[in-house]
Amino acid sequence: MPRLITIGETMMMLTPEHAEPLATAAKLSLHPGGAESNVASHAAHLGVSSAWVSVLGDDVLGHRIRTSIELHGVDVQWATNDPDATTGVYFKDPGHGVLYYRRDSAASRMSPSTVASVPLEQAEIVHLSGITPALSLSCADLVEAVFERVATNTALLSFDVNYRPSLWQAGAAAPALLALANRADIVFVGLDEAQSLWGCVTPEDVRAILPDTGRLIVKDGDVGATEFNAGTQVFEPAIPTEVIEAVGAGDAFAAGYLSAALRGNPTAVRLRAGHERARLVLLSTSDFTADPSPTQSSLT
């Protein structure tokens, strides 16, 4: 059984081979791109048995994504292909954000039935993000079903707020994401998105509105990350990095942190492991970059 199960949409990502804008890029590379599959892939490379659950189109892009993620060592037995829908696509435009083409994607059809046969109860951590409930009403139902199932067993529910303004307005997202985050065991949130959603200015402000979360990790870009846990507060500074592209770094941070947590590492080591993993992505135009060395010192 996988120790970590992640659930969510993955699309085909097209990104310039070099760190240049789409307007002038001559060559593009294709890679899978999705918050939850990114977490599973990074965790698998860190030696954590991981599975990813989703729905893809029954098309060449969907099959390529499934194969690519499996090659990272991720269990994809619960990733299915819908013959009546297509796989979403998005473009990275370095320095200018991301362009999404995901309307009516196969993943937007996910529902509670998507996880009906997935043994969530046997995992140690189940990981979701705030992207999924914004995709469709059936996806929101899926998230609710996962929260309810995990709450009745010993698995921990990990939730990355991952607010995407392109999917829903802050007025709708703020209360929905706050309610979900307050029910999770582990929550990741960027201070910038907490400010956009809830008007938070400091990590302490975030803790004040998320008092029920067991472990709350507030990320503050190149400043560092703070974990609140059982009355304690620990800050770990970020690793100075010349950023090529920031998209995907949050997923890498979550994977590094969760992998360290599954190894029983203390708070400072968990946060440092997150920073180390995120740094690999910040130095690349891809959402996923394998560890250049065979081990991560923070995880030993």
UniProtKB/TrEMBL annotation:
Keywords, in A-Z order: Kinase, Transferase
Do you know which InterPro entries this protein is assigned to? Answer: Carb_kinase_PfkB-like, PfkB_dom, Ribokinase-like
Q: Where are the annotated coiled coils located?
A: none
What residues does the Carbohydrate kinase PfkB domain cover? 2-287
Listed GO molecular functions? kinase activity
The protein's matches in CDD domains, at most eight in alphabetical order, are given as: KdgK
| Keyword field contains Kinase | yes
**Has UniProt tagged this entry with the keyword Nucleus?**
no
Q: Which family does it belong to?
A: Belongs to the carbohydrate kinase PfkB family.
UniProt-recorded name of the protein? Carbohydrate kinase
The protein's organism comes out as: Arthrobacter livingstonensis
